[in-house]
Fold this protein.
Amino acid sequence: MYGIINKAIQELVIANFGKEKWETIIDKSGIDVDFFISNEPYDDDITFKLAIAVSEEMNMSIEEVLIVFGEWWIMKTTQDKYRGLMESGGSTLKEFILNLPNFHNRIMLMYPKLSPPEFKITDINEESLNLHYLSNRDGFQEFVRGLLQGLSKMFKTNIDIILIQSRNDGYSHEIFKIIWL
């Protein structure tokens, strides 16, 4: 993960709970990093340690932490730092999701060491589609759910997200059914 991810977790905690809570979370995580550099890669383990520490400190499940962080990423981080990139993804939620398979190609121009997930879209119709999430990273499916929830807020579109397939159940990747309400 790039430092921008870990910095966003830090910003989320500080904005909602203060700098002291962030210091407690850093101590709890056991991470020996004074600050994160946005465009530097960090081991995924650091991100998971932060999420686990937030989970423990805030009395939330790790899944809840990842969902909240996914929403924050869309509603705050991307709006502050990547507004133009986000706007180029589409003018509606459906259009944006249909463009996801190509989205990380543009991001890789900014972060060349990125190991992005892959998205595929199937079963497209007027009221729903299936989003396939393929990644070499385990444990981020609820972050993706949070991203989708954040996108639904950004585009002011009500959706229902149903996980219809998961690596936790022995499949090769996750599939989310996204239904427009």
